[in-house]
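Worked example 2:
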Amino acid sequence: MKTEAGLILAIETSCDETSAAVIRGGKEILSNIVSSQIETHRLFGGVVPEIASRKHVEVITLIIEEALQEAGVRPDELSAVAVTQGPGLVGALLVGIVSGMSLAMALDIPLIGTHHIAGHIYANALVQELEYPCLALVVSGGHTELVLLEEEGVFRIIGRTRDDAVGEAYDKVARALHYPYPGGPHVDRTAAEAQTVIELPRSWLEPDSYDFSFSGLKSAVLAAINQANMKGLELDVPGLARGFQESVIDVVTGKAMRAAREHGARQLLLCGGVAANRGLRARLTELCEAEGLPLLIPPHSLCTDNAAMIGAAAHLKWKRGQFDELDLKADPGLSLEAWSVKPAAGAGG
């Protein structure tokens, strides 16, 4: 059965959150259930892929049932099932894909394999209408990219990290400062409370590059820690956290604003788990207000991994009739640009 507006059951299992959501028309969230594994992985100081996969298996059926129940939707009312195809941990992705394929087959409805980063970008469409061309600044645990969208559902990466993603850099610095996993929020909070700042380098790369590099910054933080230890000095942890955060924020916001100007973006979208960072939000808000550029930031619940964002992105393909076969494979290296929508086929709505 295919409803006029499109009721999509979306499933997200790319890393350490098991999530299912029901989305109507690509914009209305009827339910968005998320089961986090943070407490489990905190024992190991980071995500353990095999454990993540097993946890997904344990709860995926319950999460899907809860999403349908909260939405007040029967399975036979669904228009399609969307699943995260990649990027992500291959074992974790497979749990969601097998669940989604089984449902699509049983209900005889389309299956839509969805790109995880397309989901983070289109999480913004759940809170505000997107205007094209727009620029997305993606900052997450595994990704730091500048993505240009000249039209709906068509992605062009104009800048990406050459080493660590922002989230990875935060976690590594947090570990060096002996913060528990996940460390990013601790670094953010400590930086906000700092009365001093330890100046650290900015990696701008080539003058015309939109790429990022954070490995040198991470090394500078470790060098500051080691120097204090060797000299027997007390480490200024807040000052170091602030210096690290200011370096990251200066570079990512500087490049994003320059790219937005050069490409005539009508909106700047902040996407991904690190979009919850208070320092980054505040600085980007300040810069965009000065530039007169509309800034879109999803609420915190839509910044971290969730299925609602997958449903929003999947709707781009549903309304064009671009579906996947029931032998969909998990693809940890799935290309965002290749996932872009094709010319509309006239299906859906």
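The two ends are 14 Å apart (CA to CA). The chain has a mean pLDDT of 93.
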